[in-house]
Amino acid sequence: MTARTGAGAPDVRHDPPRDGGFTMIEMLVAMTLFAALGTVLIGFAMGSSRVADDVRESGNVVGEARLAVERMSREFRQASELSGAQVADGKVVSLTVGVDFDGDGSVEDDPADPERLTYTWKSSTRELTLSGGGSTVQVLAGGVVAADIRLRSSAWIQDLDGDGTTTWQELDQSSIGNKNGAPDAAELPLIDLVSVELLVRDGDTERRFTVQADMRNRGVTA
Ligand SMILES: [Ca+2]
Ligand SMILES: [Ca+2]
Ligand SMILES: [Ca+2]
């Protein structure tokens, strides 16, 4: 009994410290693991929130560009007149269309509900603006890097170089054109295809948005 107790005593005395030692090590290991896991989780959470921010930001730019492009496309298709176009360095930089939104048969310049709209691209400041009824707003709040406005005609007989596309330049140089380097006068009524290509900055990348509108619904030849 005594011997057994004596033999058992060291075991009894030694066991608790051994358990305590394992517990300490286990706790240290657990703490280290939790710390490591925590760091990974925090890093992951911060990373995902950054990604979410990027997606949100990108979604805004892309969403806004899509809306702008859809709106332009709708307005050009519904336009009952192409009132004018401005040219700079041989390129169309401004386009004025008349859309009879209220359907009363005429295009009015009512400031409350303007029907004559002008889209203007200013390459020096990279601003695409929309003017109507005496006020001007910026389209896409400075996100546009480049804009390319093209005017074409389905009057194939004026396709001087025979490439299948009649550009406003060809109309200008044709027998009906006034050869002044601008789409105007007798040329405007023959223009029935408008395309606008926008290059929009989206974070580190640039995205291209294209508007292709058939203006053949125009009854009025302004
Ligand atoms: Ca009207
Ligand atoms: Ca051509
Ligand atoms: Ca001309």
From TrEMBL:
InterPro entries: N_methyl_site. It comes from the Bacteria. Pfam families: N_methyl. Keywords: Membrane, Transmembrane, Transmembrane helix. The chain crosses the membrane at residues 27-46. NCBIfam families: IV_pilin_GFxxxE. This is Prepilin-type N-terminal cleavage/methylation domain-containing protein. It comes from Nocardioides marinus.
